[in-house]
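Input record (one chain):
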Amino acid sequence: MSHLRFILLSVVLLSSVALFAHSSKKQVIIPPPPTSPSPAVTNEFIQKRFGDTCTLMPGPPQFVADLDDDGIPDLVVVARCVNPIADQDEYGFKVIDPYDSFLGFGNVKITSTFASDEPELRGVCLLIVHGSGSQGFRAEKPKAKYLIINLPFKTLSVKKFDYKKRQLLGVFMEERGEGESTSSVIFWTGKKYRYQQIGATLE
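The corresponding structure, as predicted from the sequence alone:
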């Protein structure tokens, strides 16, 4: 092999390696910003999916955002629900309590009996519907439905944040009661929803 051919072959090999390395780098996908459902979600919509013991709360904002990072929009709304444990099997949703799990109380059957000291917070839940197919969260059979209890929020917003070298959308809260002046976030880890206070590590 001539010296010139050797040089040319080396250049081609190095270029191929560099191109492969560049294409192998995992791109950071930035999720689209949250929006509001249009038309807005109604009480009828909520009761069809979570049962007639859940009532949509008219005050808090409604959000559409890809929380589980699958490219399909999900729904986030606030409702007041009575004894949701009794309805979760019939309506196919899951009652979860990431806030009390964070505090060390992992049995949702027990924490679902906890009552807030503030009457206006009793029964207030965060409902999340993971979208499916072209209809997203409005699909007849969505990917998953979650009813989150015992969140002491005063205000809600959906924003981007970094988690394990990825950008995700989370539900951010300004808390009230014992956590007054505390900021926190609920986010999907890939397996479950997790509560974390802002400023604590998300790893």
